[in-house]
Design a protein that fits this description.
InterPro entries: Ion_trans_dom, Ryanodine_IP3_receptor. Helices cover 66% and strands 5% of the residues. The protein has 604 residues and is mainly alpha-helical. Helix 9 (159-178) packs antiparallel against helix 10 and helix 15 (277-287) packs across helix 20 (421-467).
């Protein structure tokens, strides 16, 4: 601790002494390796920040990084850096400050996790478990797609293909042993599964992969809960965690696929949406403006309902929908049913009854004194689809929205001599323009515009992260032609993680040992006051501005001195000129006096 304090003092003095700054940097010239090792250690465990005091002046603080800060995970850093939201002033400090307590709790849990080697090992490979699970889901669904329904006998494989699979297995195993890579492991696993399918059968292989998936998902869930410290949370917090609920649902479908039916495994492929940010944006393009889409869809249903009523009132005979002729085969009846059918004379006792759908429908319609349900038009079988309002609504909704030209595409083509010909034309055109052109395109437009907005927002966020300081909000252009570059500024002067480390320092340090700046920041953090964060300010820029002012003052002083010298020279020249004029005037007076005296004497 004493050595660290000495290093911090030297670090502060090095800003005013270049020789001391050079000595603090490890170099190959220094033959003492312990000295270089100590300098590396102190440099990596020392941070600096800039704070704003009550009088709005900037102050630099150099402090030792607390040991607990080493346990903050890289995934959390990446997540906070990319998801911190900007406030109304364009600063991310407020959202970052709100998450400091969660990050501090994660540090404490990760430190505690180091004392549990098994759980720590499982939690360390969280991303690997996720990748393995997705590959297992793909393999399972490939087996289901190619071999379902499963048969009792094992699929036959030719000797050449069998030898090829064995060769691929051996070569990939040799590659994995000598040079382990992800591609080699995948090849080995795929060839092994193929060998199992053609040796034990697809169903046992599927059961084995399903069991492995359940076990791996359990391990993956434990790794997630262990990495996030879920075991220390309350049950209510766990059950309201969206990520935990998602993985529990994943486990449920794994068990359903293993115990109930293999078709449940297809749901596991939707994990690709959870893994890929682009697909998540596709889903968000629908859900983000879900209310607008739902209201537009309700408007479409209302319009379809109104068009259905008009169609039922005036054009019910035009609703003739093409149907495929089907022969319904009835299972041979029981003895009692045979007697009943024999009495009715429907069919023979020991034969299967066959009914033509058209004949049956016509007979049923005649019994109810209704128009026939099935009619034949030019040899094509058509069904009357608007004899009841509910069927008219269903037909208009189903056929009208799915046909590019609207409901008019499936209605009977009317003759121009019919009295309702003009009304039919208006009906078809109104449905086409209002429902197909306007309403449906409104829904599509909302989805497409939302997706475009999400993409532009993502690009804007990436631009801000690349060219704007996370802490003070200064742009990269503010550091052009300055002594400190933008990269040095965000790494050394306003490093966002150094501010987190300082907040952690005032949380873990004994208040009786606080320095003046630490007491000030501790009080501000306790009051949740963010005024101590610099906003659009940096000491390096202020120093550059101060140097610029000094240079300008020196330039003005030099100009003033030259002007003063010029004025002095001019005043001297004026004095000399004045003396010369006085002397000339005296000479003229003397000459004039002599002339007058000589003239007087001449007259005498």
């Amino acid at each position: 601790e004493v050595g660290h304090n000495i290093y911090i003092l030297c670090h502060q003095l090095a800003q005013h002494n270049k020789e001391l700054a050079a000595l603090l940097k490890p170099s190959e010239i220094n033959v003492d390796p312990k000295m270089n090792q100590a300098l590396d250690y102190y440099a990596s465990h020392t941070a600096q920040i800039e704070i704003v005091r009550h009088d709005r002046t900037l102050e630099q603080i150099v402090f030792p990084i607390p040991e607990i800060c080493e346990y903050l995970t890289h995934d959390t850093k990446v997540k906070i850096f990319h998801t911190a939201e900007r406030d109304d002033q364009g600063s991310k400090v407020s959202d970052f400050f709100e998450r400091t307590e969660d990050m501090f709790n994660e540090m404490r849990w990760q430190k505690k996790l180091r004392g549990q080697p098994a759980l720590f090992w499982v939690s360390s490979y969280m991303s690997m478990w996720s990748n393995v699970l997705f590959n297992c889901a793909v393999l399972i669904n490939l087996i289901v797609a190619f071999f379902y329904p499963f048969v009792d006998q094992v699929p036959k494989l030719g000797p050449h293909l069998s030898g090829l699979i064995w060769a691929v297995m051996l070569v990939s195993a040799a590659i994995v042993i000598t040079l382990p890579r992800e591609s080699g492991i995948r090849t080995l696993v795929a060839s092994t599964i193929l060998r199992m399918i053609f040796s034990a059968g697809p169903e046992p292989t599927l059961w084995l992969l399903g069991t492995l998936t359940v076990l791996l998902k359990g391990i993956h869930l434990i790794s997630i809960m262990g990495n996030q410290g879920t075991f220390t949370k309350k049950i209510s917090q766990i059950m309201t965690d969206a990520e935990i609920l998602y993985h529990l649902l994943y486990v449920m479908f794994c068990v359903l696929g293993l115990c109930m039916h293999p078709f449940f495994y297809c749901v596991l492929l939707l994990d690709v949406v959870y893994r890929e940010e682009t697909l998540l944006n596709v889903i968000r393009s629908v859900t983000r403006n879900g209310r607008s889409i739902i209201l537009t869809a309700v408007l479409a249903l209302i319009l379809v309902y109104m068009f259905s009523i008009i169609g039922y009132m005036f054009f019910k005979d035009d609703f003739l929908v093409d149907v495929d002729e089907e022969v319904v085969r009835v299972v041979p009846p029981t003895v009692q049913e045979q007697n009943d059918t024999a009495v009715n004379g429907t069919c023979a006792t020991d034969k299967t009854c066959e009914y033509d759908v058209q004949a049956s429908a016509v007979k049923y319609s005649q019994e109810l004194n209704q128009p026939p349900v099935m009619v034949s038009v030019d040899g094509d079988l058509k069904e009357r689809a608007c004899d009841s309002l509910v069927m008219c609504i269903v037909t208009t909704l189903n056929q009208g929205l799915r046909n590019g030209g609207g409901i008019g595409d499936i209605l009977r083509a009317p003759s121009s001599q019919e009295p309702l010909f003009v009304a039919r034309v208006v009906y078809d055109l109104l449905f086409f323009f209002i429902v197909i052109i306007i309403v449906l395109n409104l829904i599509f437009g909302v989805i497409i515009d939302t997706f475009a907005d999400l993409r532009s927002e993502k690009q804007h966020k990436e631009l801000i992260l690349k060219n704007t300081c996370f802490v003070c909000g200064l742009n990269r252009s503010a550091f052009d032609n300055k002594t400190v570059s933008f990269e040095e500024h965000i790494k050394c002067e306003h490093n966002m993680w150094h501010y987190l480390y300082f907040i952690v320092l005032v949380k873990v340090k004994d208040p009786t040992e606080f320095t003046g700046p630490e007491s000030y920041v501790y009080a501000m953090v306790k009051d949740r006051n963010l005024d101590w964060f610099p906003r659009l300010r940096a000491m390096s820029l202020a120093a550059d501005e101060g140097e610029g002012e000094q240079i300008e003052l020196r330039s003005l002083q030099a100009q003033l001195e030259s002007t003063q010298l010029l004025v002095t020279t001019l005043s001297q020249q004026l004095s000399e000129l004045k003396d010369q004029m006085t002397e000339q005037r005296k000479q003229k007076q003397r000459i004039g006096l002599l002339n007058s005296t000589s003239a007087y004497l001449h007259n005498l």
